[in-house]
């Protein structure tokens, strides 16, 4: 099934599939003649759904919202992190209208201390310019159960509220909000770094970061313009953290 609609900047072309390996991988494997900015691939089920850091994303049929957007921004590689901030805020802004969600660095959404959404961004860079970006989103909407290994850390909108979610409606809301923020950035040069940084609520928190086999602990004293955490470790040494799984040691997120 295919659906088209145009907002401020992006001419969205939404294509629905009952089953794919992953929505990101599907776009990556398309012939260049099929790749236009605004292509949105949605799967009812992902056989090999992927999250950040090589993690799998649990994607059973008929429950969650799994989709990817193709962008062709032609921006400097230094601005790639802005795409992450914009899609994170778009997802957060839509969900917070109905649920007490929180953003977790760098682009996860939590509800009642359980992860309900995540983002995977993949890009094609040539000569320091971002030619293509695939933005993958997984949102746990109508899951009623999770595998044992996910029970303690994964949740869904249905499990929180007891109400079934219309995935097509929430997808439309997310795309409209994303297009608005993306248009602000691409057309008017509006930088959403400050808003994203404030909504994270992580500055001043003591955290533990797991990256590969290393665990680093310290206080988040700042976030730089590229979205990296500035961590002050015991003894006063500072370290830049660009990726990893973060857990807050004391107090939880502030927002």
From TrEMBL:
<dbReference type="Pfam" id="PF02237">
    <property type="entry name" value="BPL_C"/>
</dbReference>
<dbReference type="GO" id="GO:0005737">
    <property type="term" value="C:cytoplasm"/>
</dbReference>
<keyword id="KW-0067">ATP-binding</keyword>
<dbReference type="GO" id="GO:0016740">
    <property type="term" value="F:transferase activity"/>
</dbReference>
<protein>
    <recommendedName>
        <fullName>biotin--[biotin carboxyl-carrier protein] ligase</fullName>
        <ecNumber>6.3.4.15</ecNumber>
    </recommendedName>
</protein>
<dbReference type="GO" id="GO:0004077">
    <property type="term" value="F:biotin--[biotin carboxyl-carrier protein] ligase activity"/>
</dbReference>
<dbReference type="InterPro" id="IPR008988">
    <property type="entry name" value="Transcriptional_repressor_C"/>
</dbReference>
<dbReference type="InterPro" id="IPR045864">
    <property type="entry name" value="aa-tRNA-synth_II/BPL/LPL"/>
</dbReference>
<keyword id="KW-0092">Biotin</keyword>
<keyword id="KW-0547">Nucleotide-binding</keyword>
<dbReference type="Pfam" id="PF03099">
    <property type="entry name" value="BPL_LplA_LipB"/>
</dbReference>
<dbReference type="InterPro" id="IPR004143">
    <property type="entry name" value="BPL_LPL_catalytic"/>
</dbReference>
<feature type="domain" description="BPL/LPL catalytic">
    <location>
        <begin position="4"/>
        <end position="186"/>
    </location>
</feature>
<keyword id="KW-0436">Ligase</keyword>
<dbReference type="InterPro" id="IPR003142">
    <property type="entry name" value="BPL_C"/>
</dbReference>
<dbReference type="GO" id="GO:0009249">
    <property type="term" value="P:protein lipoylation"/>
</dbReference>
<dbReference type="InterPro" id="IPR004408">
    <property type="entry name" value="Biotin_CoA_COase_ligase"/>
</dbReference>
<dbReference type="GO" id="GO:0005524">
    <property type="term" value="F:ATP binding"/>
</dbReference>
């Amino acid at each position: 099934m295919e659906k088209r609609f145009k907002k401020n900047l992006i001419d969205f072309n939404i294509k629905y599939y009952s089953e794919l390996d992953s929505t990101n991988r599907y776009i990556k494997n398309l012939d260049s003649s099929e790749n236009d900015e605004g292509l949105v691939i949605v799967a009812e089920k992902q056989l090999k759904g992927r999250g950040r850091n090589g993690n799998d994303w649990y994607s059973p049929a008929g429950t969650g919202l799994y989709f990817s957007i193709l962008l062709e921004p032609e921006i400097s590689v230094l601005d790639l992190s802005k795409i992450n901030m914009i899609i994170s805020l778009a997802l957060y802004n839509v969900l917070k209208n109905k649920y007490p969600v929180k953003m977790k660095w760098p682009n996860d959404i939590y509800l009642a201390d359980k992860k309900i959404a995540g983002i995977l961004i993949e890009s094609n860079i040539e000569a320091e310019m971002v030619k293509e970006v695939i933005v993958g989103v997984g949102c746990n909407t109508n899951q009623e159960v999770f595998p044992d290994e996910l029970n303690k850390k994964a949740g869904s909108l249905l499990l929180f509220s007891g109400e079934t979610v219309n995935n097509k409606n929430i997808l439309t809301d997310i795309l409209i909000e994303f297009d608005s923020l993306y248009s602000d950035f691409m057309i008017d040069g509006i930088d959403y770094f400050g808003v994203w940084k404030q909504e994270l609520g992580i500055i001043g928190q003591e955290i533990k970061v797991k990256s590969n086999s290393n665990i680093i602990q310290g206080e988040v004293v700042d976030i730089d313009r590229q979205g990296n955490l500035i961590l002050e470790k015991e003894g006063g040494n500072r370290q830049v953290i660009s990726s990893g799984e973060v857990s807050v040691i004391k107090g939880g997120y502030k927002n």
